[in-house]
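Section 3.1: Structural characterization of target chains.
Under the original work plan, the team committed to producing a structural model for every single-chain target entering the pipeline before any wet-lab resources were allocated. The record below documents one such target. The sequence was received from the expression subgroup and is listed exactly as submitted; it comprises 374 residues.
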Amino acid sequence: MNRSVKERGKQLLQKSVLPTIYKLNKGKKTDKHLIVFADAHHDHLPAPMQPLFEMLRLKGYNVKLYCYDTARMSSAEQLRHATGFMKLYASCGAVVICDNFLPAAACEKKQDTKVVQLWHACGALKRFGYDAEDDIPAWYTEHVYKNYDLVTVSGPGCVLPFTGAMRLTSGVVQPVGVSATDKLFDQNFLAAARDKFRYFHPDARGKKVVVWAPSFRGPAGEMRNNPITPEMGAEAVHRLSQRGDYYVIESLHPHALSRTPDLSTEELLVSADALITDYSSVCFSAMLLKRPVVYYAPDLAAYEQSRGFYTDYRSLPGVHANPGALDAAVEEAVRAGETVYDTEAAGRFAESYLAGCDGHATDRIAKIMEDWLS
């Protein structure tokens, strides 16, 4: 189908069909006991939403999962799922999302229905939302984030970047922590992750384990099954993997995968001696686990110009590799281990960007929602 025709169809859906469905159903009494977890990038509950979903379920709320993957659906299927969501949206007490979810912005929602944006990553590294040229679809003229009541972020240094990128009013973005990071403080999760690693990667025994997690590039759905380019460090990482003393594992962004991996990036990091990345926010998870990060960004100058950062990239705690010297940087990082963060600058960085991640973020988010819904 012609791209312009597709975009006109999406505009009609977002501006006319979905708002109409909502208006026809919003006369129903709001059920504050009903909480809808919605996502349009997965056909299952995304990992960032799992802790809060389970906690609210155990507290007795009627938590309903409404996830569908638009990248794998026909237009007719997308219409059916989107309209089904609007019917729930018109009567539920709250909606929880962890990524862009356009149906939530398709109408003027009722004030007693709350929208919680958990987001899916820590920190405020590269520009996104309205601060990035390619993040919001060109055809979309409405305010993507207009109905948000709460956006949870990992630390106080993230509040202003998220508020600006999402064009939100003061107070909506709160540094209560990222729910998905609670597991990184859970000894049962850590032990299970180590067991899974030993099972799926028996050849890593006796070697230094290095996880390579390049940043996702481009709009969701456009990178699936595409090769990682040399500009992202592929050749240098491949050379490193040929050394007999290292065991290198490539871990891609979920949007770039065609199937669920055996271990998530966070699970891999539990057993890792170092992480290599360019601009991925997974570096913040590595910091929480005290795993040294090697930043290898051969296209940094071009990326700064085309995308840009909220944080001074060169000040990120860890080891910054020079082009052509990845081996030396990894050796330095592995040798340093946790001590790579034993600096005053690293402490200030953690206080600014990770202070809300202490293993109890889900508790705080659930408490806010309970206060709303009581």
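Residues 219-231, 254-259 have pLDDT under 50 and may be disordered.
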